[in-house]
């Protein structure tokens, strides 16, 4: 790739022009997008597991219908994102293969267990809340198919977040046991939710280049800060306490200061050693194996249809 090509590409990015699948693009741009979009798709698919676990145990029919819809949406987001990645010249088989072999990452957050019903509320409130904070700027990502996919995804995430917060509101207005259950879930999910935004900017390998290419519009720490500032008042409204004694409003910066994130825990989970990593991968591999016949049947049908059409 010569200097002239790279400069012309950067000029298109700087002019806020969208890059489309058939446009020339630097190999690194393509690679970064495939990596990020695929990791995002895998996260949606693996992210179905902690909540899927609660569909049969939702406390009411209405809660069950909403949870079922949410988990289905996540499956849809995953498929949508795999399609966006495929426009860059990789196949879904290859991407799924990378997930199942452990080569590709998915969000650390989905390696934590959903133990009580309050976890379902907290996942919607915090995990979807963090996802929205991260994904709204991705609607302006320089790569067209990813940016456009994010618009619909964000609308659905917004329903997911409200669904979760409303569960928390109900629990917090309920019995002492229900409120304690809500507090316990917040205690367990708060720090892992902050880790969703990725390492500190100083330790983020891809941020600088991804910002220059306008794939990312904000750094990991900037988005984490926005999320904290938006979420603390929501916890106050619920009457819950954030599990961070160092959390304090900083008038000067107009945001909250917070305690140190346990980065050892983060990297341990990213590298496969969280509470549920093995279970999650086992569940995905089993689903893939159990559904081989569906893929084979679809392929055979497509071949027959194509043969009929050319006959
Ligand atoms: N977990 O250089 P950076 C959802 C990796 S929301 C695991 O800063 P980057 C919705 C990173 O890949 C969750 N790995 O990387 C839902 C890189 O490793 P690599 C998914 C992480 O890409 C809600 C290394 O660390 N959302 O699913 C994590 O510039 C509820 C260095 O990091 C997205 O994927 C992590 N938390 O920034 C579903 C959004 N953080 O690849 C169900 C799109 C970092 O070199 C229920 N992705 N790493 O081997 C992004 O915005 C970015 O990729 C970041 C990371 C911000 C996640």
From TrEMBL:
One of its GO terms (biological process) is phenylacetate catabolic process. The keyword Oxidoreductase applies. One of its GO terms (molecular function) is phenylacetyl-CoA 1,2-epoxidase activity. InterPro entries: Aromatic_CoA_ox/epox (IPR052703), Ferritin-like (IPR012347), Ferritin-like_SF (IPR009078), PaaA (IPR011881), PaaA_PaaC (IPR007814). Keywords: Oxidoreductase. It comes from the Bacteria. Its EC number is 1.14.13.149. One of its GO terms (cellular component) is cytosol. The keyword NAD does not apply. This is 1,2-phenylacetyl-CoA epoxidase subunit A. It comes from Denitrobaculum tricleocarpae. The lineage of its organism: Bacteria, Pseudomonadati, Pseudomonadota, Alphaproteobacteria, Rhodospirillales. The gene is paaA.
């Amino acid at each position: 790739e010569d200097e002239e090509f790279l400069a012309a590409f950067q000029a298109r990015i700087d002019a806020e022009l969208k890059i489309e699948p058939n446009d020339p693009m630097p190999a690194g741009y393509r690679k970064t997008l495939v990596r990020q979009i695929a990791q995002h798709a895998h996260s949606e698919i693996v992210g179905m597991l902690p909540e899927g676990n609660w569909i049969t145990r939702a406390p009411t029919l209405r809660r069950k219908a909403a949870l079922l819809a949410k988990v289905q949406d996540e499956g849809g987001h995953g498929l949508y994102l795999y399609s966006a990645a495929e426009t860059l010249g990789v196949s879904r088989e290859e991407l799924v293969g990378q997930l199942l072999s452990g080569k590709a990452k998915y969000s650390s957050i989905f390696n934590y267990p959903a133990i009580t019903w309050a976890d379902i509320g907290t996942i919607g409130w915090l995990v979807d809340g963090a996802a929205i904070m991260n994904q709204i700027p991705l609607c302006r990502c320089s790569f067209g198919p990813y940016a456009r996919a994010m618009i619909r995804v964000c609308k659905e995430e917004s329903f997911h977040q409200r669904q979760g917060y409303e569960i928390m509101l109900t629990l917090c207005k309920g019995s002492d046991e229900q409120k304690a259950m809500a507090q316990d879930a917040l205690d367990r999910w708060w720090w892992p939710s902050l880790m969703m935004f990725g390492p500190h900017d100083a330790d983020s390998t891809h941020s600088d280049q991804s910002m220059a290419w306008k794939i990312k519009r904000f750094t990991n720490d900037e988005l984490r800060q926005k999320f904290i500032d938006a979420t603390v008042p929501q916890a106050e409204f619920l009457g819950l306490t954030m599990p961070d004694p160092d959390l304090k409003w900083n008038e000067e910066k107009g945001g909250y200061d917070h305690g140190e994130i346990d980065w050892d825990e983060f990297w341990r989970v990213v590298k496969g050693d969280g509470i549920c990593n093995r279970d999650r991968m086992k569940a995905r591999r089993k689903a893939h194996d159990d559904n081989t016949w569906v893929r084979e049947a679809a392929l055979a049908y497509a071949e027959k249809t194509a043969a009929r059409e050319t006959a």
